[in-house]
Design a protein that fits this description.
CATH topology: Four Helix Bundle (Hemerythrin (Met), subunit A)
CATH class: Mainly Alpha
Shape: globular
Largest sheet: 2 strands, antiparallel
Order of helices and strands: HHHHEEHHH
Length: 206
C-alpha cells in the first residue's frame, strides 16, 4: 500500500506540473481529449475527484456532496492545487493509520479495498495528466514504476462494448503502435491515441 500511495502522489503531482503551463483565459477554454470537455471542465472534474477520494479515504465517501463539481472561479489552477494538497494529505493519513477500512466510491458503485481504490485514482491521474499535457501542448512522462502500476490497473478495466463509449469513463480500446511504450499501452487500452503527443518529446520526469 505504501508504494502505491507514493506512485499515486507522483502521478498527481505530475498533473499539477503540466497544468502550470495554462497561462491565460484562452488556455482554459481549449478542447481536451475528453470529448466535449474544455480544460476548465476537465480540471473541474479532476478537482472534485480529489475531494471525493479524500473523503473516501477518511471514511466519508458515501457522502455525495464531496463529489460535486463546483465552479473553480477566477483561479482554477489555485483551486486544483488546493485539492491536490487535500488528497495527498488524506491518502497519507490513511496509509499511516494502517486501517483496512474500504473506500466507498459512489460514482463507480460500491466499496473497495484501499489498495484497489488508490489504484483507480492512480490510473485516472496518469491519464488525466496526459489529457492536460495534450491540451496545452507540453510533454509529459512518468517513472516506469508509475506507468507499470497504471497499466496493471488499466488491464483490469472491462473492455466490453457496453462498458465503453459515450457516457462511459473510457472509450473502446485502440490498437497499440508497434513501438508502444508502457504509457502508450495505458492510453490505447482506455481508448486514447498516443499520436496526440507524437510530435512532442517526453522530457518531464518526476
Amino acid at each position: 500500500m505504501t508504494e502505491l500511495v507514493a506512485l499515486d502522489r507522483t502521478a498527481v503531482r505530475t498533473s499539477l506540473r503540466v497544468l502550470s503551463a495554462a497561462r491565460d483565459t484562452a488556455d482554459w477554454e481549449r478542447p481536451t481529449p475528453c470529448a466535449g470537455w474544455t480544460l476548465r471542465r476537465l480540471v473541474t472534474h479532476m478537482t472534485a475527484q480529489h475531494h471525493g477520494f479524500a473523503a473516501a479515504a477518511r471514511g466519508a465517501g458515501d457522502d455525495r456532496t464531496y463529489w460535486i463539481e463546483h465552479d473553480l472561479g477566477r483561479d482554477p489552477a489555485a483551486r486544483y492545487e488546493e485539492s491536490v494538497r487535500h488528497l495527498i494529505a488524506a491518502f497519507a493519513e490513511y496509509e499511516v493509520a494502517g486501517t483496512e477500512r474500504e473506500f466507498v466510491l459512489p460514482e463507480i458503485g460500491g466499496s473497495f479495498p484501499g489498495r484497489v481504490a488508490v489504484g483507480f485514482h492512480l490510473l485516472d491521474y496518469v491519464v488525466h495528466a496526459w489529457d492536460v499535457a495534450v491540451t496545452l501542448g507540453v510533454p509529459v512522462a512518468f517513472p516506469d514504476d508509475v506507468t507499470g502500476a497504471a497499466l496493471a490497473v488499466a488491464r483490469r478495466v472491462p473492455a466490453e462494448p457496453e462498458r465503453r463509449g459515450p457516457g462511459a469513463a473510457f472509450a473502446p480500446p485502440l490498437p497499440a503502435p508497434a513501438d508502444a511504450s508502457p504509457l502508450d499501452h495505458v492510453l490505447t487500452h482506455l481508448g486514447r491515441s498516443p499520436a496526440h503527443l507524437s510530435s512532442i518529446s517526453s522530457s518531464i520526469s518526476s
